[in-house]
Design brief:
294 residues; mainly alpha; two-stranded antiparallel sheet; 2 strands; 73% helix
Length: 294
């Protein structure tokens, strides 16, 4: 029972954060048709920026109850700064071949890695006592679940619901969906597509930076965490289907549970298990589990 409960909670926790990043990757591709390899770098930058924000909060003796809003706020602030500037750079390749998109976004990964090394150093950083500041939920004498995991799962769920509501129920969401379906028709209806692209890309960046900020108290921030996240994020997209938000959710849950189970049962099988699932999906249903067929 102990192993099953930890696999369940650990899988949902990892899936919640992974879904935020994958959702950002999906919306950018759906609207702007760019495969954004830099999503992992935004995740890593969010983690480092979150650590700096928590250090600032600790110096001011801010109560622990404010840590979650501070982490989310730090991710949003970073996205507002990074999103528009990076999107302006990507305008150079909107109408170019996919190879240019991959090369430029991968170049951004390398640039952001060097920026992290320059600002925060090469040594992994970790928050002090933040993870355990929220206590734990004891279910049985031998089973306790950290409350921070439950809080992050709830926060990610609320962000995801708000994200879906925004896309389906607001005027901006309708404009985004119309632009994704037919850019030329949106321009003919006097929609400023350049502003839509900037807003969508910034939103995608925000999902990544907030995900990185939320996950860092449960682990450590390291320079290579962005590259590791890229592997997981693209596994989610391949499993669920490129451009499908429900697919991103299903893919994130699958990857989260597989990773959690492998860590508990056989750690050496962790990455191999994900690759086996990805290969199986590519053979059986190349477009992904929930993607629309072309």
């Amino acid at each position: 029972m102990l192993a099953s409960a930890n696999i369940l909670v650990g899988g949902v926790f990892h899936a919640a954060v992974l879904f935020l990043v994958a959702a950002g990757l999906q919306i950018v591709f759906g609207v702007q048709k760019i495969v954004n390899l830099a999503c992992g770098s935004f995740y890593a930058l969010g983690a480092y920026f979150g650590i700096s924000a928590l250090a600032w909060a600790a110096a001011l003796k801010v109560p622990a109850i404010a840590f979650i809003p501070i982490l989310i706020g730090s991710g949003l602030l970073l996205a507002i700064v990074l999103g528009p500037s990076v999107e302006r750079l990507l305008r150079l390749i909107y109408d170019r071949d996919e190879h240019f998109q991959i090369l430029l976004t991968f170049a951004l990964v390398l640039i952001f890695e060097d920026a992290i090394r320059l600002i925060w150093g090469a040594v992994p950083l970790q928050t002090i006592n933040v993870y355990f500041a929220f206590g734990e939920l004891r279910i049985a004498s031998d089973l306790a679940i950290p409350n921070y995991n439950l809080i992050v799962i709830a926060a990610a769920a609320l962000i995801s619901v708000a994200f879906g509501w925004m896309l389906k129920r607001t005027r901006f969401g309708r404009i985004v969906r119309a632009t994704a379906e037919n850019k030329q028709m949106s321009e003919a209806l006097c929609v400023d597509v350049s502003k839509v692209y900037m807003a969508v890309f910034t939103l995608g960046v925000a999902l990544g930076t907030v995900g990185g900020a939320l996950v860092v108290p449960a682990g450590a921030a390291s320079i290579d965490m962005g590259v590791e996240l890229i592997v997981d994020a693209f596994a989610v997209v391949i499993i669920g289907g490129l451009g499908s938000m429900p697919g991103a959710l299903i893919g994130a849950l699958i990857v989260g549970f597989v990773r959690s189970a492998a860590i508990w049962l056989y750690p050496e099988f962790e990455l191999l298990a994900i690759y086996v699932i990805v290969i199986t999906v590519l053979i059986v249903r190349p477009q992904g589990l929930l993607a629309r067929t072309a």
